[in-house]
Design brief:
9 helices, four-stranded antiparallel beta sheet, single chain, alpha+beta, 2 domains, Jelly Rolls
């Protein structure tokens, strides 16, 4: 069950099986159905998730009811409501399973205890933070300067699985366009 997590660690570190065993005992297996809300806006995020199978979506809902998707965690990725998780304060975003998903979950207290005492978790955490920063910068500047068509082309090039696996409405919320606009953009690409 933890083999997938071990392989992830091996891509980032050189830990041994016995060192990994000390880490993996802190992760619990969780299976959720499609559409399950793991965290609702207004709750405090106490968990970090590693996706074994499926997909998690991280999104906020604006005052107008419009959903704005920040991130998708597919297989072999970590995900959490990072601001809430770090600050231990209420979250402004939701975490939802977009597909039936199998997860490994570690609670905040155990995770931070490991960050302080285990160099491998510390490296993984640093990688998560660095990737979150880079991704947020790309999204901020991409949304400010790129056209909707450019954002769609970027998605097709760098994250094609999103286009294949996820519903049209959710993809549109990730790109910052309406579903109608997304349909129009896709049609213009293939004509």
């Amino acid at each position: 069950m933890h083999e997938s997590l071990y392989q992830y660690f091996l891509t980032k570190t050189n830990l041994s099986p016995s060192e990994f065993a000390q880490i993996s005992e802190h992760f619990k297996y969780k299976k959720v159905k499609r559409g399950h809300i793991l965290l609702a806006e207004g709750e405090v995020c106490h968990h970090l998730y590693f996706v074994l199978k499926g997909c998690l979506r991280f999104f906020a809902t604006g005052e107008d009811g419009k959903e704005n998707t920040r991130y998708f965690a597919f297989e072999q990725k970590f995900g959490t409501a990072l601001t809430s998780f770090i600050e231990n304060k209420i979250s402004f975003e939701n975490i939802q399973s977009i597909e039936a998903s199998e997860l490994l979950v570690i609670d905040r207290d155990n995770f931070y205890r490991l960050v302080e005492t285990n160099k491998y978790i510390n490296l993984i955490y640093r990688g998560i933070l660095e990737m979150a920063y880079v991704t947020s910068q790309r999204r901020i500047y991409g949304l400010q300067g790129d056209t909707a068509l450019d954002r769609l082309k970027w998605l097709l090039e760098y994250q094609p699985s999103i286009m294949i696996r996820l519903p049209h409405k959710i993809i549109a919320s990730y790109l910052g366009v309406t579903p109608y606009t997304l349909s129009r953009l896709k049609a213009s690409l293939y004509n």
